[in-house]
Amino acid sequence: MIPSGLSRRILLCGAASLLTLPAAAQAKMKIGIIGSGRIGGTLARLWAEAGYPVMMSARDIEEVRPRAAKIGHGAQAGTPAQAAAFGDVVLISVPFGALPQIGKDYARELKGKVVLDTCNPYLGRDGEMAKDALERGTGIVNPTYLPGTRLVRAFNQINAAALASDAHRADEKIGVPLAADDKAALEIAKRLVIDAGFEPVVVGGLATAKSFDPGNPAYHTMTARELRAILKLKS
Ligand SMILES: NC(=O)c1ccc[n+]([C@@H]2O[C@H](COP(=O)([O-])OP(=O)(O)OC[C@H]3O[C@@H](n4cnc5c(N)ncnc54)[C@H](OP(=O)(O)O)[C@@H]3O)[C@@H](O)[C@H]2O)c1
After folding, report:
1. How far is the first Cα of the chain from the last one, in angstroms, to the nearest whole number?
2. Topology given in CATH for the domain delimited by 8-230
3. Which numbered atom of ligand 1 lies nearest the CA of 64?
4. What is the pLDDT of residue 12?
5. Which residues line ligand 1 (CB under 6 A)?
């Protein structure tokens, strides 16, 4: 079945060949951002600089408008609903406790879309729902809050300062662990990690996201090589 929201062009190219597409073709993939804070706001900048059409959002659009203008490169500002509708891919980067509301309020716009989920549960901040997610793993629990999406766990383990300062560094790249059940969504996430200036490290299906959830040795900013060693991954 053809997932809604992704451009026909991307589908015709096929996920496997997506990584080999020239940047100009890749750049046609639109990215909506729900939660334009330290993580979402920085990724908005990095992807806009890489040539992607980006729409940042905040609940108060007036707050995000000047930030989108400052980024330039055609970055737009919108409401969360507009960003969800705009993106072929939607980054969700909000406090963990907001996930159920976002999954409900924007279910129609998010349906069938590739969603990159950075949201981490913290007991002190998010209470009982964090306890459940930490026990079962975010890769298992978060999709229950965002049903009908093609969810990829991504950018949850790199700290905001490194995201802002270490993109595209000449030295060994910082690794970004990814977990997804949807192979085509995973390929898209890999491309977006590379174009943001980092190195994707595919850990496995959604169940494996637990290995880089908060509290685990892999839940720290490190190079891709270090990450593979800690997670005992071959490539
Ligand atoms: N900071 C880090 O180093 C880091 C690293 C990796 C992952 N994470 C995780 O990624 C997520 C975002 O972290 P962050 O540090 O970027 O947080 P942040 O700076 O506090 O930004 C969160 C954003 O979410 C928006 N937001 C809050 N509630 C919302 C709702 N109900 N609907 C729509 N937007 C909402 C806020 O915008 P408005 O309130 O203006 O609408 C704010 O811009 C968290 O789950 C965090 O645990 C953080």
Report:
1. 30
2. Rossmann fold (3.40.50)
3. 40
4. 39
5. 34-40, 58-60, 63, 80, 93-96, 98, 101-102, 118-120, 156, 159-160
Q: pLDDT value at position 23?
A: 55
For residue 98, which atom of ligand 1 is closest to its CA?
31
Any idea where the domains of the chain sit in the sequence?
8-230
Which residue's CA lies nearest to atom 20 of ligand 1? Answer: 37
Span from the CA of 108 to the centroid of ligand 1 (angstroms): 22
Among 34, 38, 102, 104, name the best residue to mutate to test ligand 1's pocket (greatest count of ligand atoms within 8 A of Cβ): 38
Is there a contact between 80 and 33 (Cβ–Cβ < 8 Å)? no
Q: In this structure, which amino acid lies at residue 227?
A: L
Residue 181 has pLDDT above 80, yes or no: yes
What single-letter DSSP state applies at residue 75? -
Length of the chain: 235
Average pLDDT of 130-155?
98
pLDDT (mean) for 131-151: 98
Q: What pTM was computed for the model? A: 0.92
Query: 78-122 pLDDT, tens per residue?
Result: 999 999 999 999 999 999 999 999 999 999 999 999 999 999 999
3-state secondary structure of 50: coil
